[in-house]
Every structure is written in C-alpha cells, then in structure tokens.
Amino acid sequence: MGRSDGAVGDVAVGDDSRGHWSGRTVLITGAAGLLGGWVARELLESGASVLGLDVAWDSPRATTPPAGVERIDGDVRDTPLLRDLLRRRAIDTVIHLAAQTLVGPAIEDPVDTFSNNIEGSWSVLEACRNAGNAGSVDGKGGVRRIVVASSDKAYGDASGRPYREEMALRPHHPYDTSKAVTDLLAQTYGYTYGLPVAITRCGNLYGGGDLNWSRIIPGTIRSVVEREAPVIRSDGSFVRDYLYVRDAAAGVVALADAVGEQPEIAGTAFNFAAGVRLPVIEVVRRILTLMGSELEPVVLGLPLKEIPEQRVSAARARRVLGWRPRSTVESGLLETIEWYRSYLTKAA
After folding, report:
1. Can you give the pTM of this predicted structure?
2. What are the residues whose beta carbons fall under 8 Å from the beta carbon of 219, sequence distance 6 or more?
3. β-pair type (204-206, 162-163)
C-alpha cells in the first residue's frame, strides 16, 4: 500500500540559495491543508524556519509537510497554547490558514464551521495581540507579520461583477459567513490594536495535495485515473475564478513580507486570482482533454446553495505587491494531473 497522505514535495532546506526569510521563524496554522503545505514549501525555499500547527495531521485528507517543517499537534482554538508557543519560540510571522473549508459540510453543520473558522481566528489574533507586536506602543518584540486567510466567497453574490477589495462583504451561506467574520476580525485587530495583519481573499484553489475528493478538480482527476465517469453535482454552470495553489502560496508569502514593511496596509485585504473564470463543466472537459479521456461527465443537476458566478480582480495585489500568477490554467492543470497520477499509483 502507498501512503494515504498528500505530500507536496520536499525542499532542500540546506541549500545555499536561501532567501531573505533566513532568520525568521514562521508559524503556519492549518499546515496540514492544501495551501498550508505549499506556503511552507515557499517559505522553506526562502530560508525561513517553519512550524506547522494543525489538529488533523493524521486525517486521511492531510498533506504531508515538506521536509524541514516542525509539526505541532494542536487546535487553534486553544489560545493559551498559542500564547505559549508565540512567546517561547520567538515567532516572527503567523500565517493563519486553519479552517473548515468545505461548503457542503458547512451547510450540514454550521456550528462546527463557525467554531473552527470564527473562534479559531479570534483565538489566533488574540494570542498575537497578547504576545506583543511590532505595532505596539514601544514597537518592540512580538509577532511582526500576520496573514489571515479569508475567501472570495466572503463577498457573496455580486451578480457576476468582479470582486474588488473595497466592496462590502455580503455572505449568505454558512461557510461564506464564517470567512466574512474572520475577515472582519482581522480588520478589527489591525485597525483597533495596530496588529500587523493583512488578509487574503483567494479564488478557488487547486493543485497537488488536495485530498478532498468532493472538490471538482481532484475528484475528476481521480475518476479518470480509475476509469469512471466524473460526477458534477450541480448543472455545471457555476462559474469560478481558479488559482493554482503554488501561485496562491507565493501571494501569501509576498503579503506576509509586505505587511511587516508597510504599516499602511495593516488591516486591509488583498484578492489573489489568475483571472481564469470557467464554468464547472468547462473545467471538467479541460481535464478530460488533457488526460486524453473519452469519458463523459455525469451531471446530477442538484440545487446547491452556492454562489452562481464569481469573478475576482487581483489588480491591487499586482499593483502593491508586484504579485503575478506564474502558471497558465493549462500548465497548472497539467502539473496537478501529474501529481495525482503519481499519488494514486503509489496509493493503489
């Protein structure tokens, strides 16, 4: 049997090409998730020391961290644990990614989602505030950079208009609301307490390491590998802005770097998206084409409580951070397909 986890790839942390993050210790919450694994990889390649906190390291959906990550078992809702960790380990940067991220389970159990996503976020922010921070009165000690992950879904239904950071957050469904509250909490701690925190609102992420098979991209790839028709729960018309996870990770790291150097962006949000807006049926068909499959998707047409169309403008990230996606949709999907083919072969 192969591994039942999702390794995102090892990093030669002893390489001489260490970057400007050398000497910084970074805590990533939700480090066993898809984005957490790739952010850790990006930071290790830049020379950081990385601690990964997660309550679900042994989950069948967990990502195996890159070599060099110090794994810590713990819940972000445990504020005393966080306070002790931040002070004892002299954490320079906190990247808060821990969340219940699936829309379906959020609808089925909103209380668990609100507890994980909202209580977890105020716990992290309060621990950072009490540990001292670069925005404190004396400007000494504590956490100097904080990034909190919100979501493009916090905007709600904008009737197909591109999401821009100055737009009001108008969520209607449990997951979307949980991320909007997380977003507002981060803004509050930035503006009220001077915490050096910035917020990410990413489009739909995809890439190797996502073992939530209910999601359309990993689910479709696995179906093709197993020679089964991929299933689309909706009617296939939902439009999403897709972003390759390696590009998202680069954006998170760039924002963490910037918020430590530019106090004026504290408490503000940045969208990250590739501008690749596709209906679900088109995503499935592109995967089938790239994998050389003649399978036809099964379209269930279920009435899902999701936003029909999402478009994300990343103009601010391009202008302020100089961030650009490195991947096209084809190159990102090809790398993703290659990752899953290798993973599923080993797991067979």
Report:
1. 0.91
2. 213, 230, 231
3. unpaired
